[in-house]
């Protein structure tokens, strides 16, 4: 096989649709946009969005809004079980967010970590986390380690 015998990949260079070039082209007159409505106008993409209902009052404005939502103030923790610590750390290790990232248990150190009680722990570990469940804290201290709350 020679270099001049190699053909380009099929479908790599696709011809663009030529709009508005007469009725014989199949894409003349309205250029495939249909007649009337927001979709036929130039700049139409700004007016058509999810939840748009034309002239009707939008659903979100129709429903009553009452009460309090904690959505903006909640704290989401990366949950780590005691059994995960048992399998990935050695006796006497310090377990902090940086060590958890290195072990592949969490993706970054910005997310606060909460240690949960699922599983058993027999290794003496110094665990530093944002929060602990009560039973997880008991399991860590029972194994001879310490549970430190850090922000």
Describe this structure in words.
This protein has helices spanning about 60, 80-90, 95-105, 135-140; strands spanning about 80, 95, 115, 125-130, 130, 145-150. The longest helix has 9 residues, at about 135-140. It has four helices and six strands. The chain has a domain at about 80-150: Ribosomal Protein L15, Chain: K, domain 2. The strands form two sheets. A three-stranded parallel β-sheet has the order 1-3-5. A three-stranded parallel β-sheet has the order 2-4-6. It is about 20% helix and about 15% strand.
Radius of gyration: 31 Å
Q: Note the beta-strand portion.
A: 5-15%
Number of helices: 4
Give the structural class: alpha/beta
Unreliable runs, pLDDT <50, ≥5 residues?
none
Instruction: Give a short account of the largest sheet.
Output: 3 strands, parallel
The CATH level-2 architecture of the domain at 78-149 is identified as Ribosomal Protein L15, Chain: K, domain 2
List the topology elements.
Elements: H1 59-62, E1 78-81, H2 82-88, E2 94-95, H3 97-103, E3 113-116, E4 126-129, E5 131-132, H4 134-142, E6 146-149
Parallel strand pairs: 1-3, 2-4, 3-5, 4-6
